[in-house]
Amino acid sequence: MIPEPSNRTESQLDRVLECLIGNMTVSVSGERLARELGVSHSRVIRLVNRLRSFGVDVQGEPFSGFRLSRLPDVLLPHELGRRLHTGSIGRPLHHLYEVDSTNAHALRLLVRGQAPHGTLVLAESQSSGRGRRGRAWSSEPGNGLYMTMVLEPEVSCSLAPLLTLGTAVAAHDTLERVTGLEIDVKWPNDLMVGRRKIGGVLSELQAELDRVGSMIVGIGLNVNQARFPSELEEIATSLRIETGSVHSRQEILIDFLATFERLYGRFIEKGPSQIIAPWSEVSSFALGKILEVDDGVRRIRGTTDGLNPLGALRIRGSDGIVDEVYSGDVIHWE
Ligand code: BTN
User: Fold this and answer.
1) pLDDT tens profile 24-33
2) Sign of CA dihedral 118, 172, 272, 286
3) Would you state the pLDDT for residue 170?
4) Pairing relationship of beta strands 93-99 and 120-126 according to DSSP bridges
5) Which atom of ligand 1 is closest in space to residue 130's alpha carbon?
6) Spacing, Cα 219 to ligand 1 middle (Å)
7) What strands, in cross-sheet order, belong to the sheet with 322-325?
8) Which residues line ligand 1 (CB under 6 A)?
9) Cβ contacts of residue 98 below 8 Å, gap of 6+?
10) 317 CA → ligand 1 middle, Å
C-alpha cells in the first residue's frame, strides 16, 4: 500500500503537464520547467518520467526540451471544471495521479470533514483498488476510470443500496451513449459486455441511526486497456477491446456525472421507483433469468422475478417459493 498522496508531488505533476499543454507546438526546456516550478533539474526529469508512466506521451529530453505529441487524456481538474455542468456532483473534485484506493481516500477526506456531498475523488492509478467482497480491482495507470463520489442522501438506510443500483444505471446509459455498445447490468451492479465485465460499483456506508450519513460510491470502468492479466482475460474486457478504438475518459466522466446527478435528483424527489424501473429495463437479470446467487450464507437457485420495492432481487425457486436477496454474487447464470 502506498502512503497518502503527497500534495506537493501531485501539484508539481499538474504544473509540468499544464506548462506542456500550454506550449503544445514548442519544446519546453528542462531548465525552464525547473525555474517555473522552483525545483531542481533532476526533480523535473523524475516528474516527466512519472507522467510518462501514466501514459502521457512526453517527447524529448531535458536539454533539447520536452513537448507533448498529442493532448493527453489526463483528468485535470482545471480542464474538467470547464466542461462540467453539474450542480453538486463532482464538486469539489480531487484529482490524484496515484493513490491506494479512491474509496479509501474519500473516506480519509470524510473523516477529516473535508468531503461534502458531491465530492469526487479521481485517480490515474490505484495501487490497492478495492472490488466487492474483498476482491482487488485491477487499475492500470491512465487507461481506466477510477473514481469515488461522496453522497449525503436524505433517505433511510434501507434505501441506500438503491443508489448503488442507480450508479450502475447511470454508468450503463453513459457507456451505451458514448460507445454504441450494448451494455448489460448483472445483478446487482456489474457492467457487462456479453459475459465479460467492463465496470463495477463498490459502495460503503456511514450510517447515523436510521439515516444514511454519508455514502462512498466507488466506480471502476475499463476504458482503454488493450489487454488484461491472464487470470482476468476470460472475465474482463474494456471499451477499447470491444470497439477497437481508444475512448476519451474525460467525455465518459463528464457524461456520467451529469447522468448520475439527474437520476439522483429524481430518486430523492420521487423515491425508489426512479431507480427500480430503469434498472429493470437495462438489466437482463431482472426477469426470467435462471441463475444461482451466493449471498454469503447460502446459495439460492431459481429464476429472477423482478426487484422488490427496496431493490432486493426476487428469485423464484423450483418449488415456487420466492426469496428476496439484498446482496450477493451471481455465481452461475444461463
Ligand atoms: C466490483 O468489484 O465490481 C466493484 C469495483 C469497484 C472499483 C472501483 S475503482 C474506484 C473505486 N476505488 C476502489 O478502490 N474501488 C472502486
Assistant:
1) 878 999 999 9
2) negative
3) 98
4) parallel
5) 14
6) 5
7) 322-325, 313-316, 299-307, 287-294, 329-333
8) 101-103, 126, 129-132, 135, 137, 146-148, 190, 200-202, 218-220
9) 2, 5, 123, 124, 125, 126, 127, 141
10) 31
Residues 176/179/181/184 CA torsion (nearest 10 deg): -40
Rg (CA), the chain: 21
**Confidence band for 91, pLDDT divided at 50, 70 and 90:** very high
pTM over 0.85: yes
Check: CB of residue 311 under 8 Å from CB of residue 271. no
What is the torsion angle, in degrees rounded to the nearest 10, for the CA atoms of residue 97, residue 98, residue 104 and residue 109? -40
At 47-84, the pLDDT tens digits run 999 999 988 999 988 788 999 988 888 898 888 988 99
Instruction: List Cα–Cα distances, 323 to 151, 286, 317, in angstroms.
Output: 30, 14, 8
Give the number of other Cβ atoms within 10 Å of residue 33's Cβ: 24
Contact of 40 with 34, CB cutoff 8 Å:
yes
Tell me how far apart the alpha carbons of residues 98 and 133 are, in angstroms, rounded to a whole number: 23
Cα(first)–Cα(last) distance of the chain, in Å? 38
**Which of 96, 130, 197 has most ligand 1 atoms within 8 Å of CB, for mutation?**
130
What is the CA(314)–ligand 1 centre distance, in A?
25
State which ligand 1 atom lies nearest to the alpha carbon of 219. 8
Nearest to 122 by CA among 156, 65, 81: 81
Q: Is the peptide bond before 188 cis (omega within 30 degrees of 0)?
A: yes
For the chain, give percent helix, strand, coil, nearest 5.
35, 30, 35
* Residue listed under C-alpha cell 480491482: 137
Q: Find all residues with CB under 8 Å of 319, minimum gap 6, and list them.
A: none
27 sits in the region (left: phi over 0; alpha: psi -120 to 50; else beta) called beta
Report the nearest-CA residue for atom 11 of ligand 1.
218
The set of residues, in sequence order, having a beta carbon less than 8 Å from that of 136 and lying 6+ positions away, is: 128, 129, 130
The predicted-structure confidence for 126-182, as pLDDT tens digits, reads as follows: 999 999 989 999 999 999 999 999 999 988 888 988 999 999 999 999 999 999 999
